[in-house]
Write a structure and sequence with these properties.
The chain has about 160 residues and is mainly β. The protein is about 5% helix and about 60% strand. It has one domain. Strands 1, 2, 3, 4, 5, 6, 7, 8, 9, 10 and 11 form an 11-stranded antiparallel β-sheet that branches.
Length: about 160
């Protein structure tokens, strides 16, 4: 029942595809400093988990396929602690001359407040339905949390 409520809330467009995804082992979270700041950087921590991609069909023509990202349920280990990451957002892929992609997620890391992660519109997505995109809070400038999302559809699951 909750899935139907969430799908109804994804907007005025209708749903075409609902696909479950699993993060691949190369996925990870990095928290620390990036250029131009000089401070210690924390090492990347492996990330695991799942999410659901819901394709949104609109009546207007578009060069991009639009998806709602729901039920983000990820986790990573920080010392002896397992840190959950939860949230939702959107993913788009397409383009006119070169394939581009963008992932925007509002995520809560552990007990922290929800934060907006965004890849910006970047090259990539040509291997879709495989997903390989880097999202961050501060565009990888100074202190930031960066998540490498490498995910594949789960076979036969929706």
């Amino acid at each position: 029942m909750a899935l139907l409520v969430v799908l109804a809330a994804t907007g005025p467009s209708s749903c075409e595809n609902v696909v479950s995804y699993a993060l691949r082992p190369e996925s990870g979270v990095t928290q620390g400093c990036f250029e131009p700041c000089l401070c210690p950087i924390w090492l990347m921590q492996p990330l695991s988990g799942r999410f659901i991609l819901v394709e949104r069909r609109t009546t207007e023509p578009s060069l991009f396929r639009e998806f709602a990202v729901i039920f983000v349920d990820w986790k990573f280990e920080r010392g002896d602690e397992v840190v959950p990451i939860t949230g939702s957002g959107r993913y788009s892929v397409g383009g006119e001359f070169a394939v581009q992609q963008r992932m925007e997620l509002d995520l809560r890391v552990g007990d922290g407040p929800a934060q907006h992660f965004d890849s910006g519109l970047v090259m990539g997505g040509g291997e879709f339905p495989e997903i390989d995109v880097r999202i961050s809070v501060n565009q990888q400038i100074c202190f930031d949390t960066v998540i490498d999302v490498l995910a594949s559809p789960l076979p036969g699951k929706s």
